[in-house]
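User: Fold this; tokens only.

Assistant: Input:
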Amino acid sequence: MLRIGGELQLSASDLVGHLNCRHLTSLDSAVANGVLQKPKIWDPLLEILWERGSIHERNYIEHLKSAGYQLVEIEGVGIDQTQVDKTIQAMQAGAEIIVQGAFLGKKWSGRTDILRRVNAPSDLGGWSYEVVDTKLARETKGGTVLQLCLYSDLVSAAQGRTPEFMHVVAPWSNYEPQTFRTADYSAYYRRVKQSLEQSVFEQAHESTYPDPKEHCDICRWRLQCDARRRTDDHLCLVAGITKVHINELKRRDISTTTELASVPLPLTWKPERGVLHSYERIREQARIQIAGRTAGKPIFEVLPVVPGLGLSYLPAPSAGDIFLDLEGDPFVGEGGLEYLFGYLVAKEDGTHEYIGEWALSRADEKRIFENFVDFVINRWARHPDLHIYHYAPYEPSALKRLMGRYATRESMGSGNQWGRNQWGRTRLISRPRYPREADAKYDVS
């Protein structure tokens, strides 16, 4: 969201941001109008992702060059009229591929990764252009499709014809684009676009609040929003609370963690949604978090053991138990790289030993995978009742994926197969999740 020549210009990023968080739109609008200052934030992970995205785009451009296409690249950053004119000139000349095409409309502007010429007549002549975007994600999400719709809309205004298709080039796809029919998504695109325009241009500002969302992980406003939630003592700070809980409590004039902590028990009202027990549980959670704030340190309460509930589901410990954690990078090579196998076991003398094996290549990854499987099988022979504890479904999925990738260690001996049934049935046990907040109690129920 920028002011160009005194006019407010919206971009694809604004459209995706509006889809993910209306409060983000309000904040960016305030910056554009000079009410707020744009926050400065540096995130090394986002920097790495941006760099990898740029490499992916450059590699695709080199692929097009090697395939014999004639490219016209629009130089420079940002968007100005000179770049727009060069883009239109290249389109009128019928360039096969236009890199970083620039478009500047009355309200919207954008730069396309790739414009590809197709044999469909338009105001340009016997040809027109479709948009190709390069993305790191292997699965195309709604935000990416909205971006493509906006770019196709801008191209449509320039050539007098709506592109029939739009395309995404994902990594490790041999540069074969995923193709989407523009008309299939145009209605939804118009709806989101209209909502954003009303919010920004018609001053139809809805009352927004920085409720936590997935988009917070990559948002430049996340520190400011988190500070506001903590200043407001917002209910979202209660570990384990849900949006359903929050809406129900607000209807009952309970809007802060402190207010929730002071609600008398047992509850005398019946919630419209959810079960009463869940509200009593989050009330107790709020109480102990407030107590931790007062004490200035994390505190917890041990819940009574209930047979068949929570940690009581765990089997009896075995001397052969293995505690496993895998670390992987999904952007290394095709399919990612599991670069660390870490597991903790008890030795014969009762002390514990940590085994950590690193992989910096495919050969290393295969080796440490085989080492781990062999270790498990040998240990299993000595301890038939062993279990493997892990944090989430990631570990068993990764093990099966590595087995398929390298076609090794499929057989576990005695005819048993290293597969879903064997390892999903008895051997791998997910470790219970606990709230992330430092002042949360350990609720094992």
